[in-house]
Amino acid sequence: MNLWLLGSAALAAIVGMVLPLQALLNARLGALTAGPLFASFVSFAVGTLALAMVLVVARTPWPSCRELAALPPGLWLGGIIGAVFVFCGTLLVPRLGAASLICLIVFGQVVGSLVVDHLGVLSTPRPVDAVRLAGAALVCVGALLVVRPWGTA
């Protein structure tokens, strides 16, 4: 058994387990302060400070301003996507509940991942096939069973 793969899978599962907690904490912060936008800002500010401390402790070299300026502009969208993700989680978890929110996010991630894999965005294309579509359909069914949009709130 590949221990590196097993450890990586365990870490990914643990991160996945705390994402609902992040959304709940941010939503509570928003409820007790100026709302979900402020709470999302605080979440990113605290995260930025934490990562800055890790960078300093790890002695990670920083790229030069010239290297940063030479990067393709689209690479900066990752931060915007992260901010939208945190804001939407903060906004939606009180409306949908943690389980429904995370299931819908996972479904969206699967669909988006199939598209970027198929198109080869930033990597070698990995075409969509029947097995991968079946897997996405199962994730969709699972999300629907958790969300239960036909039920009462």
TrEMBL record:
Coiled coil: none
Membrane-traversing stretches: 37-58, 70-92, 98-121, 133-151
Alphabetic keyword roster: Membrane, Transmembrane, Transmembrane helix
Gene Ontology terms: cellular component: plasma membrane
Name of the molecule in the record: EamA-like transporter family protein
Organism: Luteimonas chenhongjianii
